Amino acid sequence: MRTGWKNKNILPGFGVTMGFTLLYLSLIVLIPLSSLILKTATMPWDRFWEIITDPQVVASYKLTFGASLIGALINAVSGFIVAWVLVRYRFPGKRILDALVDMPFALPTAVAGIALTSLYSSKGWIGSLLDPYGIKIAFTPLGIIISLTFIGLPFVVRTVQPVIEELGADTEEAAATLGAGRLLTFRKVILPELLPALLTGFALAFARAIGEYGSVVFIAGNIPMVTEITPLLIMTKLEQYDYTGATAIAVVMLVVSFLLLLLINFVQWYANRKVISN
């Protein structure tokens, strides 16, 4: 009988596999991020503060994180509904609809940006219908939110879908047998089981939206202080050979993103712990 933390696995050699894992993560993640921080550390503090507090940069922070948060929240709700429909109902064209969910994964981001811009511009199919009412989507923050919602939906659907499949309809039937209504069944039975997966999908959609560039630059219009996202600002500084400015802005994005994802992971851990305890 084997005891301790070394158990027999399909892949033998804990030391080799762990060494490969650490080496791979170091080369792909840790070393690039560390070099970014080290590059910024060589910069005088007053210069760093001047760059990251520039009004144009601050405006891009607000737009990027705000639009990403709104898009991820929309996806958390709509993604749950789409996943529920795909799992619980049978209807013609279900397989096609299921395949369309993955379209943002396969579609190049530039193509998605051009498609959304042509659709929501004042001369597009949808934009032309809204333009007489003074509603503009393309080249506004609203257009950015739509773009980020488009690219983030599959993360929520594909994360929640397997959990709904495992949940099964028998739990709802049992709750109904005990006299629980639909709302009570959803709050007490379904939501607690789905909450960890929903938080995971939300975190993935939010993380993807923060760094999204290709699909946003076309529909945003890139107007400084209005529709200029932070990734575009970083690219602009790199094109101007302002590596110091680009690095400083990137470090702020890195730190804020890490803290937000850490908070989301803590909430997810707490939700998992609560589900297990119940």
From TrEMBL:
Residues 61-264 form the ABC transmembrane type-1 domain. Keywords: Membrane, Sulfate transport, Transmembrane, Transmembrane helix, Transport. SUPFAM superfamilies: MetI-like. It holds the Pfam family BPD_transp_1. Its main location: membrane. The chain crosses the membrane at residues 12-38, 65-87, 99-121, 133-157, 189-207, 213-234, 246-271. It is a multi-pass membrane protein. It is found in: Membrane. Belongs to the binding-protein-dependent transport system permease family. CysTW subfamily. The complex is composed of two ATP-binding proteins (CysA), two transmembrane proteins (CysT and CysW) and a solute-binding protein (CysP). This is Sulfate transport system permease protein CysT. The lineage of its organism: Bacteria, Bacillati, Bacillota, Bacilli, Bacillales.
